Amino acid sequence: MSESNTNTTFKRLRNRYRLVVMNDDTYEEVVTFKLSRLSVYIGLSTIFMLLTGLTVALIVFTPLKMYIPGYGSANATRELRQLKIKTDSLEQAMQYREQYLNSIKGVLQGDTSIKLDTTALNIPVTEITTD
Question: In the chain, how many domains are there?
Fold first, then answer.
């Protein structure tokens, strides 16, 4: 049964059809095409592949690729990384300066609360043996 089903499917794909474009006022045939379903499928697939190929080529071989997120030149990526490092170091320097100024302000206002180091050191005791 499957052979007859596939046979009829191929037969339907190969059946010939006529596409006629006519002038509506005079009923004159302007263009006539002889087509089959298979040729229409192949033609549409070819057009789709060509458009996809042209789109990919347009993006790859032109400066449009710079608009793709995550894509850029190695030089721009390196500069961006250096700027990020500088920004981080400047933020850390500003934080240290603000902490220093707050400490000076506290001393000038008479704030005598001393913040002690809360980390305890565990120093191992070494035994000295004499012979």
Answer: 2
Query: What letter does residue 30 receive in the DSSP assignment?
Result: E
Residues 89 and 35 in one domain: no
Residue with tokens 């010939």: 16
CA distance linking residue 41 with residue 35, whole number of Å: 10
- Interval 11-56: pLDDT, tens: 888 899 999 999 999 999 999 999 999 999 999 999 999 999 999 9
Residue 101 tokens read as 């100024």
Query: Rounded to whole angstroms, how far apart are CA atoms 8 and 80?
Result: 63
Quote the pTM value: 0.49
Instruction: Mark whether 2 and 59 lie in a shared domain.
Output: yes
Residue-range definition of the domain harbouring residue 81: 73-108
